[in-house]
């Protein structure tokens, strides 16, 4: 019994230490090239528990993600300046459109193991500077690599990415089946961090929360 209580006491300490080290130790350890260069400005959008990546829209991006307009996402209208991508747990994403609708089962699945989905939304102009917005300039090659990473996160069916019927928080967003499984240790923010590393940026070694990802990006980019 004493071992059990020691485990319970030690677990939060171990997680806090891992989160601190995950923020302070950069990944990769050495920069691959000069940061902050390039004409493609991507944005990371944050709330207290989740991050998304906002991709600036041009004809290349519209062609790459043409399947979005087929699902009713108006990525082709002139007012749309960004397509916003996020990866996350299926139950929590689909069943918790607002905090007032928080339920026990989605939370339990998010803390243990769940299937994953991609959430796609669109946005007009996004103001900078803003506490919940971080912008990064990358070159064309890194931008293309980032698009590859995002596209590879969509699970493919016989006709391409698999939209989930009758899902979305508004008229202009949709959910899609995604590759990979979600849990508390490998979640939405570690997906964002991996995407940013694909784009040539540096993150912390392990960033389970938006705040730790934000701190690490400010340290190393």
TrEMBL record:
It comes from the Bacteria. InterPro entries: CHP02117. This is TIGR02117 family protein. It comes from Mesorhizobium abyssinicae.
């Amino acid at each position: 019994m004493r071992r059990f209580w020691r485990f319970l006491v030690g677990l939060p300490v171990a997680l806090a230490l891992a989160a601190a080290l995950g923020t302070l130790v950069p990944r990769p350890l050495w920069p691959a090239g000069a940061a902050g260069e390039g004409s493609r400005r991507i944005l990371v959008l944050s709330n207290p528990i989740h991050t998304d990546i906002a991709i600036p829209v041009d004809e290349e991006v519209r062609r790459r993600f043409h399947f979005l307009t087929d699902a009713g996402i108006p990525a082709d209208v002139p007012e749309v300046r960004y397509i916003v991508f996020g990866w996350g747990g299926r139950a929590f994403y689909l069943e918790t459109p607002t905090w007032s609708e928080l339920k026990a089962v989605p939370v339990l699945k998010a803390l243990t193991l769940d299937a994953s989905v991609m959430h796609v939304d669109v946005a007009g102009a996004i103001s900078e500077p803003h506490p919940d917005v971080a912008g990064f300039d990358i070159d064309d090659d890194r931008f293309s690599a980032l698009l590859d990473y995002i596209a590879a996160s969509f699970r493919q069916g016989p006709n391409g990415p698999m939209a989930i019927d009758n899902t979305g928080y508004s008229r202009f967003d949709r959910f899609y089946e995604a590759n990979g499984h979600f849990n508390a240790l490998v979640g939405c923010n570690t997906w964002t961090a991996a995407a940013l590393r694909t784009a040539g940026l540096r993150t912390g070694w392990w960033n389970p929360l938006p705040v730790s990802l934000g701190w690490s990006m400010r340290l190393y980019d």
